[in-house]
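Reading is simple: each integer encodes one residue's backbone shape. The lines below illustrate:
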Amino acid sequence: MTDVKAAPNDASPAAFVAGLENEVRRRDCKALLTLMKRITGEAARMWGNSIVGFGSYHYRYDSGREGDWFLTGFSPRKRYLTIYIMPGFSRFESIMRRLGRYKLGKSCLYIKSLDDIDQGALRELIERSVRRMHQKYT
């Protein structure tokens, strides 16, 4: 099942974002709230104390482990703004070449600010990622 620390809850994503001290991070997160809602058609939901997620899917591994997770989301961390691209990045190489300055984890895109990246490429990346998740899990 979903890790209790990152379980969905009824906290307000808008209040969470409004409470961010860093003005640039707050501005970027407000923009992501709008963008991800438009792409997914889903309302934002807090997952744990610091992740804003949109939509959800149920996964089941061959090992028998299963749970629910969000389709896409973000988290304003201290050093980077983390954007969650759940299928990973291998299918999106052409978009990644256009994106700008970033670092990657398995399903995490780390950026300093939206100003550092091509926002059209980011929109396309999130759209294709969400589409891929729908194809795989619905």
Q: What stands out?
A: Helices lie at 13-18, 23-40, 93-99, 119-137. The chain has a mean pLDDT of 94.
